[in-house]
Amino acid sequence: MSGSGSPSWDAMGDEEQNPRLFIPNFLTSHQCKELEFIHKSNCAVGYRPHVFSTTLAHLVATNSAHLIMPLVPIRASLMEKVESFFQCEFELCIEFSGLISWSKGASIGWHSDDNRSYLRQRDFTAVCYLNSYGIDFEGGLFHFQDGDPGTVAPSAGDVLIYTADSRNVHSVDEITMGERLTLTLWFSRDGSHDEDVKLISQLSQIFPRQMNDVTITSIVPFPASDTMYWFSGSAHHSSSDLVINICCGRLHALGFSIYYSEDPTNDLLLSKPLKVTRKDEYYNFEFSNLLHALQKQRVRHHESMFLKDSGLLEVSFGRTGGSAMDEFSWDWLATGLDDWSSYSKHLHLELLRYVKNDVVREARKVFDVMPDRNVVSWTAMVRGYVQEGSITEAEALFWAMP
Ligand SMILES: O=C(O)CCC(=O)C(=O)O
Ligand SMILES: [Fe+2]
């Protein structure tokens, strides 16, 4: 389904019979990657086997409300598209929006999206494909039972919009390899099902608390109810052995081993501090809990992408990159995620330590990435150059001093 960038099928002959719209390249690859990051670091057990989802309510409940931000303009522009295509401007609300991934074994047979009594309020569906068939996963083709197009092969950035009623009966083939990721939205004419109303009430409960207590400004997520992270291996399991913790599973899939400071019982995993190792790498960093570890490890996993993309860094970490970011190590990035002032303090100490030990090249790397240099750091750096006899560099830096 490659396209020209403009909506297609909107002039279909059978528009009345099968009202649907396909928009190629609606999202940029940057947006797709950002949404993937949010999902991979926050998803919880989905509504069916092999399905994981990240709902907005879940992001709020896990202290990750800031991660809703990238979704806000995307939701708004999708709503605008749906309203204008179906000629119902200002009539719709978003009933549900969620990042949904399907792993091997997931599929759905013929259905319409309003086919249950509790789903009757759904009028329209928009599915944004965030990754691609044949690249990120195999299987997972989307089929309409009638009309054109019959089949859609998901491709990152494309959007499929259709009415949620029986004019658009559809199915999705089983995933046979990889993981298929979408941002899926349902729209309703019934304002009593407005997702935003619920979200705003949820958010208004947490924000006053944050404003009154400056210490609660960390963006480290905290766990929601434990049951959100457990995945039953079998629909009829009777033994707790069959229950897998999703966060543990994902960390293991990324090659990490998990170490707790004390022997944890399964149901306490989410509240215990932990450390991780990978192969022969040991990180002397204590994570507050499993979810925290997972979010940071995902950062590392996406590290090369983040380091190349200063815009994304700014959105996610509140600071811009720059060429010096190439020198960033994962430990620094992880520390930066946690608490910016302790990160800054850490850099100042590192700089002084390097200068004291005459490791001027390393000192300069630290100096270049420091977000807030002060008179001490400038002077230390100049002193480092003088100590090692690099007078030209020392002079250049001296004159560059603000
Ligand atoms: O992900 C898709 O392409 C459609 C999924 C679907 O049909 C549903 O969730 O109802
Ligand atoms: Fe569906």
Primary descriptors:
about 400 residues, binds fe (ii) ion, four-stranded antiparallel β-sheet, binds 2-oxoglutaric acid, 13 helices, disordered N terminus, eight-stranded antiparallel β-sheet, 17 strands
Protein model, in words:
With 402 residues, the protein is α+β, with helices and mostly antiparallel strands. It has 3 domains: 193 residues, Jelly Rolls (Sandwich), CATH 2.60.120.620; 76 residues, no CATH class; 62 residues, no CATH class. 36% of the residues lie in helices and 20% in strands. It is built from 13 helices and 17 strands. A hairpin with a 2-residue loop joins strand 16 and strand 17. The longest helix is centred in the middle third of the chain and has 18 residues. The N and C termini lie far apart (55 Å). Bound molecules: 2-oxoglutaric acid and fe (ii) ion.
Q: What is the share of helical residues?
A: 25-40%
What integer is the average pLDDT?
76
SS summary, helix count? 13
Q: How much β-strand is present in the residues?
A: 15-25%
CATH class of the largest domain: Mainly Beta
Rounded radius of gyration (Å): 25 Å
Weakly predicted, low-confidence segments: 1-13, 208-219, 232-242, 301-340
CATH architecture annotation name of the largest domain: Sandwich
Distance between the termini: 55 Å
Main sheet properties: 8 strands, antiparallel
Ligand catalogue: 2-oxoglutaric acid, fe (ii) ion
CATH topology of the largest domain: Jelly Rolls
Shape: elongated
Please name the fourth-level CATH homologous superfamily of the largest domain: q2cbj1_9rhob like domain
What is the tally of beta strands?
Answer: 17
Estimate nothing, just give the exact number of structural domains.
Answer: 3
By helix and strand content, what is the structural category?
alpha+beta
**In sequence order, what are the helices and strands, one letter per element?**
EHEEHHEEEEEEEEEHEEHEEEHHHHHHHH
